[in-house]
Design goal:
Blueprint lengths: L3 E2 L10 H11 L10 H20 L7 E4 L2 H11 L5 E3 L5 H4 L6 E2 L10 H9 L5 E3 L13 H10 L3 E5 L11 H4 L3 E5 L10 E4 L15 H4 L7 H16 L1 H5 L1 H15 L4 E2 L10 E5 L5 H10 L2 E2 L1 E2 L12 H5 L4 H4 L2 E5 L6 H26 L1
Parallel strand pairs: 1-11, 3-4, 3-5, 5-6, 6-7
Antiparallel strand pairs: 2-8, 7-8, 9-10, 10-13, 12-13
The structure holds pyridoxal-5'-phosphate (PLP).
Length: 372
Amino acid sequence: MAAVYLDYNATAPVRPQVIEAVARTMSTVGNPSSIHGPGRKAKNLVEKAREQVAALVGARARDVIFTSGGTEANNQALASAAHRPTFISPIEHDSVLGAAPTAATLRVDSDGLLDLDYLETCLKNSEPALVSVMAANNETGVVQPLSQIADLVHEHSGLFHCDGVQAAGKMPFNKQDWGVDLLSLSSHKFGGPQGVGALILGPGTECPSLLKGGGQERSRRAGTENVAGIVGFGLAAEIALNELSEFQKLETFKDKLEQGLKNLSNSLLIFSEHAPRTVNTTCFSWPVMAAEKLLIQLDLASMAVSSGSACSSGKVKSSHVLSAMGVGADLAGSAIRISIGWDTKPEDIDQFLEAFGKIVDRNNRKVSSETN
Ligand code: PLP
């Protein structure tokens, strides 16, 4: 059986039109910093992609800095405000947590939503700060109240950095209207190539280059641009924007999946079930089986999903996101994430439920034979 791919939050399949555009770009020569014709042509391709990426999130093209991905964008955003006190949510991606080791940690509730009262208390007792809170969580899909967070941060003269990696292309996003000062994006989460992303600034926000070298990206990111990757990123952003309302229809797939899962086992729990979530993410725990074991059984049935936390290294480690939500070790240890996207078909959900149903049946038979 062909694998059913349900791990879009780890990486989404690249759109066929994007593959074509990347290949076409790679077959032409030109460094965007060169003054001659091929160089100017490469520069034009980069500038077109800058417009496409800006349009996806309601930003100005001139504020887009292309990076090697979401990780670098997050690192650069946090480094740019290293002189300020920094507050980060406890459910951030490792690329935020690792880039701000001395930051103070905010709080989330049992759904993973930011505690706004606590944020306000922190800001009242601080010098103007940098606050970093992601838009949508990679494990649970929970979407934060971004405008409210931005208002609080700005009332206290702070800067708001938002990791929008799991939100862009999956839900309407307007950086300007929502008051996000620094926004991180990654191309490979919505159908673009891996290894390319962006940090998008607000008007007047300074952001020195992390890398030392040439004056590319208006001296905000040294190094020859990944032209083919950037072209693919731009096209994927344009397609994602055009298909945003289509993407919202995935909610019916998610509802079917979650209802189906609950029908299969009474003990199954869906994290943040009633909180605002992206339409593509379901994180659940079936406490009967550890995540590692369930992942292997699903893999044997050609189902590509991930454990709640294994986004980075393929390792199954305990989830800091679920732990910040107050989820106990046994529930967190059996958390599985299913994430769908542009190429998911209704049959994929049916096949997953069938495969999972067989595992549940097998387990039930084993338990009853052991107790008899
Ligand atoms: N931020 C979030 C929320 C993510 O889920 C990821 C990737 O999983 C990243 C940042 C890192 O992005 P990249 O893989 O482009 O470095």
